Protein: Polysaccharide export protein
Amino acid sequence: MDVAVGTLPAPQAVDFMAEPTTQAVRPLDVIEVSVFGVEDLSLTVQVGADGVLDYPLAGEVPAAGMTTTQVSAELEDRLRSTYVRNPDVTSRIIERAEQLITVGGQIERPGRFPVEAPVTLLEALALGGGITPEANRRELLIFREVDGERYIGIYNVSGIQRGNYPDPMVYPNDIVMVGENEALARVQRVVGIVSSITSPLILLERVLR
Structure:
C-alpha cells in the first residue's frame, strides 16, 4: 500500500449539464437503440452493473464511459459484420441511473444518498445528519476507485473546518466512513498512521479482480 500527502484523484469527469447525446453512459442506464429498417433490432436495453451493454448480434459492448454517439458507432461496426447491411444505428439514454454516495460510520443517519453533482466532504456529512458527538473527528476516510485502482483519503474534519486544508470533493460512488471502524483499523494496521491535521493522507491499493 502506497502512502502520499496530497489529494484524491478525481474519477472520470462527468458533465452533469451536458446534453443527453454527449453524456457518458453509466452502469444501469437504460438506452433506447434504433436500427433503421430492422425492427427486430430496435430495442430498449439496460446497461449492466458492470457497464456492459449486451445487444443481439453485437455481443457485449463496454458502454460505460461512452457517449450514445459512440455506442451507436460501435453497434454499427459490430452489426456490419453480421447479416445487417449498412446498419444505421441511433441510441439515446431514456433513463439515467441514480448517482449515489455512501456515508457510514459514526454518522447520525448513515446510508446512501442521491446526488446530482459532486459535493464537498462537509456537504456529504450534512446529508447524513452530521457526525455523532462521540465521533473521532480526526479519523475520516473516503474510498474511491479510479481506473481500476482503489484510493483511500484520510482526513481530519476539524482540520478542514479550521482551514488547514480545503474541503475535498466527494463524487458519486464514493464511500465516506466516519470515525472508528473496521476499515480504518485495517489501514492503521497496514501503514501505522492516523490522519494529519495539517494535510490529508492518500493511500493507494490495487483492486483485486
The CA atoms of residues 25 and 64 lie 5 Å apart. The radius of gyration is 21 Å. The helical segments are 68-80, 121-127, 157-161, 182-191.
